[in-house]
Amino acid sequence: MRKLLLAGAAILGASSGVAIAQTPPNQMQGQYAAPLLGGPGPNNNNNTFGRTQSGAAPTPAPGTVVIRLNGRIYAEADLTYASGLQSAAGTISNGAATNASGYKLNPVGVASFIRLYPGMDGMASNGLRYGAAAEIRENFEGGNTFSVTAAPTAAGGTAITTPSATATSGTNSSASGNSSAQTLFVRRAFVYLGSDQFGIVRLGQGDGLGSIYNATNVFTIGTWDGGIANINFDGGFQGAAPSEYIISWAFLVGSGPEYANNKIVYLSPSLYGVDVGVEFGPSQGNAFANSSTSSPYQVGPCNTASADCVTVTSGTDASRWINRWGFGARFIETVAGVTMQGYGEYIVSGHAENGSAVLAGPTHLATGAGALKYDGQNMFNGGLAVTYFGFTVNGDFTVGRTNGSNALDPTGGVPVHAELASISYAFGKFSVGAVGAIVDSQGSANLVGTSQRHEFAGAIGGAYRIAPGINLAMEYQYVQKHQGDFNFNSSAIGGGTAGNDIHGQGLTLATIVNW
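Given the sequence above, the corresponding structure tokens read:
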């Protein structure tokens, strides 16, 4: 009996708060206590060279797996000033109701987001490496409440409810309503197999060669800003300002239109610091989108071949690229303390055929999805970076047949010429830097032969690593965009009183926590 009472007391004690406080937490209970290693890893363990370049987690020991749940929480306070933050009466923008009295945006903002990076990396006893990775992000809705309409399915079955594009009453949603409208979505989801001798094959929704080669942003935006991402849309001015101030990200790397479609990618082993790769993506999306949907915010899946099908190769919209190939290589070498890195990727694709009546040529008078012809992609993207004693000088450029952010160039439109340059310096917990980019492209497809688009963006700032996993960052950014006869505020032909130049600038103070 005495032994039974003692055993019962031990069980009760193990269940009490006092006992838990005195006993180290069991990691199987979802708690973790150890030095922080690494951070967000949507591209962990690409291959041997990839691990060296990106600082991803070490390969697991043979016969073991590592299960990860990395994440990032980003929060900022920002000041935003731009030429289009106040609209004139009557302006129609993004389908919103006609403005009778004029709108004005608050230049002061506070923003935040969460991203999660679940994944698994394993190694079999025979040296086979395998795993999976995903990225989950947060969506945001506007400030108005949404009206809901019902539409029958193509087969006349159960109605699908879809919120209209505008709020008919213009009534604002409460803070609770805005938060409840936020959703989570999958940005990456892929699996990989390979070995150090064969290389790695990745299949699913994930990065192409350009984004893999530039996993640390060393060729483009750099890491001196602590994670704001400066002139690439993420945080800072590009994230807080209206969408017309987002520059065309012609550099591919780190861009959703580049990594968010499903593809197959091969990455070779490294030989003398050089490795090569091949990628293929049949469409701009996920083939499951043809027959599966769980979102009340979208029209249902395609019942038969139609514009609702993500994998169509012909129809009324020739702006879709199809069967996109990429061929690339990268290198890294350190000589006398100087680290040199470079990459290059050539991309070519087909385009959907327009089965409807097509005009003889693009014109600013043409309207409708079937009014324009498009060419397949045919472009080159590459970059160089040199680091010495904490100083890094890097550049990236894109040239060829593409338009905007990884879109197709309209027939007769000018090819893109985009250049980016950056310099940064890291010393201990501090880093500072500056970056500038110029993008010349066709811009509006309806203005072929009439005008071209010219964009410039620059940023300067720095970061301080407060402690492992947390950065404090500050940045100033300036953006300017121009295209003759195009109104950026309404995304319509005709400059109007808004003019053909828009200017914007912003100051951002951000705290970024990674784990």
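The chain has a mean pLDDT of 80. Try to locate this feature in the token string yourself.
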